Prior knowledge:
InterPro entries: AA_ABC_transptr_permease_3TM, ArtM/GltK/GlnP/TcyL/YhdX-like, MetI-like, MetI-like_sf. The chain is an all-alpha fold.
Amino acid sequence: MTNSEMFHIRTEEAPRLPAPISTTGAIGWMRQHLFSSIGNTILTVIGILIAYSLIAPLIQFALIDAVWSGENREACLPQDGGHSGACWAYVKAYFPQFIYGRYPTEEIWRVNIVYFLFAVLLVPLAIPSAPFKKANAILFLVVFPVVAYFLLTGLVIGDTVVLPIVETAVWGGLLVTLVIAVTGIVASLPLGIALALGRRSKMPIVKLVSIIFIEFWRGVPLITVLFMSSVMLPLFLPEGVTFDKLLRVLIGVTLFSAAYMAEVVRGGLQAIPKGQYEGAMALGLRFWPMMYLIILPQALKLVIPGIVNTFIGLFKDTTLVLIVGMFDLLGQIQSSFTDPTWSTPSQGHTGYLFAAIVFWCFCFGMSRYSIFMEKKLHTGHKR
């Protein structure tokens, strides 16, 4: 037998075989993450049963048994002794109030313009690869607040009424929620950074003032802050001097959130190795250039989850303004329960479900964007 008959030498590359089905795709993911062991399998089955027991009735109420159209409560009442599902016809009828509150109907176009400008400026600002970032940031942080203020409140030049004045007392719904949340988020971040730097300052007076401010606002419940800003603050002002109630709430919420933001940022500053500070000082950088160019970019990237978590908490805490007589989204929904036209057993459940969906969409969006930015900036420091 010759050598060529004893050995087979392949002259062509062997065809690539697909990976086993059990290790790829949805089946592979489930085997690896859900059914990798007996314990995980038991926990997965228990989790599926719990999820089914919670989700199935929700789907039954919100979709299957729901009423989608109608003129009054008669459409949403239980029929023939059956169960009453969600009354989405009631949400449809009250939808303008949930979005605009009691804002004058003929002036709603002004609110729509503010919503549109907010979205148009925010979306490119949130996209890392979008061009003209500096101009976009100036428009969003400087120009937009001024334009939104005059659009929402009105504008009078001399004796000429350019835009009719709309008192903040008639604002409500999602408008109030977004105004308080966005103002608090935008204003509390730079104030929190300044307080965090002040708390780590080597100047005793600056450090003491920062510590007192942070600990005071962190030690007081937000409800108390709202009561103080809305009820007690006018008592300490000179006679004849007053602030708009919404402005008082905005100040209280911003200061409260800034104290928590300061501690989040301080955690990021303390996580930066000492060598970064020493290297920046060795380059001859003074304090502010060192912070702006070297330290803060690293520190803020490290605490993105904490910052977004504070933003989400602030967004949800806007519902507390109801106790000082301001009707945000949740407050507007609760006030609609007094209308006998839509009074049904499912009205309250439907209203709160609608509020939960709206808040979940905003909070989930912020959470997912936070995860996206973490991956974009590699804050996990993968090796």
